[in-house]
Amino acid sequence: MGHVALCVSSLDNQVEFYTGALGIRLNWRSEKEAGLGTERADLIRLVEEPAFRRYRGTSGLYHFAILLPDRPELARALARLLNLGYPNYPTDHVMTKTTYLDDPEGNGIELYTESPEDGSFSISGDTFVTLRADGTASSGREPLDVEALLQHLRPDDRLDRPVPDSTRIGHVHLHVSDLDAAIQFYHGVMGFDLMGVSRSFRAAFVSAGGYHHHLGLNTWQGEGAVPQPADALGLSYFTILLPDAAELDGVVERVQSSGHPIRQVENGYLTEDPSRNRVRLASQQ
C-alpha cells in the first residue's frame, strides 16, 4: 500500500497534528498541499480545500492504518498521544496491537504493529475466529494492556522522535455501498486474494501475499450508501503499489476491460471502485 491522500479544510492544523501528535515528518509543502511520511516516502498527502465540507452516511474512508515496525514504536506513539491527552482507543486484536483515533477533521486512523506470536485471526464461515497462542478464544477486540506496552520504552526514549523509516501504510478500510460489488472489483478485477467475508458483520477483507488484510470493506454506512460528493472532505484517494511496470499494466488492462473508469495521471493511474472510492495505481519500480 502506498500513500493516502486526504482533502482537508485546514492544512496548517492538519500538518501540526500529523507531525506533532503522530511524529510523521513533513517532507514537502506548497501553499495548498503537503506530503508527510518517513525520509523514504510519503505516507499521507494533504490537499487544502477550505470550501469543502464533511458528509455523513456516504461511502469513503473508515480508517487508514499506519503500520509501525515493533512494539517499542507503538509504545512511543501511544505515549505521545497520552502525553498530549489526545483521545484514542487502545485495542488488542491478538495478532496485532493497535490504537484507534480520529484526526482533528474526523479522518479515522489506526496505529498498529504486528504480533503474530500472540495468536491468529481468521473468518470461518460467517464467524470471526481469534485464537491466542495457547489455543484459547478471544473476541479479537479486547482492551490493550497499555501498562505492559509502555514497558517497552526506556527512560531516555524521546517522544518527539519521528517514526522510523520502516513505518508504512499497512492497510486501508473503506465504507462501500455494496459488499459483493466491492469484492468483485478488488478480488475479481484487481486480483487481491479474498481472505474472508462475514455477512453478519457486513465486512470483507482482501490482501496480497497472504497478509491478513490490505483492504477492509464494510457496509456499516448502510447498503446502498451514496458516494462522497465532489466537495467532500476526507478521502481523496489511496494508493496500491504494484511490484513492477508489467504487473501494473496487467491490473490496468483488467480494470479497462471491466468497464470501470480509469485514466493516466502523473506516475500512475486513477480509477474508482463501484462505490466511487478513488484508487491510485502505481509501480514500485
What does this structure look like?
With 285 residues, this protein is of the alpha+beta class. It contains five helices and 20 strands. The strands form three sheets. It has a nine-stranded mixed β-sheet, covered by helices on one side. The longest helix is centred in the first third of the chain and has 14 residues, at 71-84. It is globular and about 55 Å long. It starts with a strand and ends with a strand.
Quick recap of the structure?
The chain has 285 residues and is of the alpha+beta class.
Task: Describe the secondary structure blueprint for this structure.
Layout: E1 4-8, H1 11-20, E2 25-29, E3 33-37, E4 42-48, E5 60-67, H2 71-84, E6 89-92, E7 96-102, E8 108-114, E9 119-124, E10 127-132, E11 137-138, E12 142-143, H3 146-150, E13 168-175, H4 179-189, E14 193-198, E15 203-207, E16 215-218, E17 234-242, H5 245-258, E18 262-265, E19 268-272, E20 278-283
Number of helices: 5
Strand content: 35-45%
Global morphology: globular
Could you spell the SSE succession in H and E letters?
A: EHEEEEHEEEEEEEHEHEEEEHEEE
Question: What is the count of β-strands?
Answer: 20
On the 0-100 scale, what is the average pLDDT?
Answer: 96
Low-confidence stretches: none
Fraction of residues in H or I helices = 10-25%
Radius of gyration: 19 Å
Largest sheet: 9 strands, mixed
Largest sheet, spatial ordering of strands: 12-6-7-8-5-13-16-15-14
Supply the helix-strand structural class.
alpha+beta
N-to-C span: 14 Å
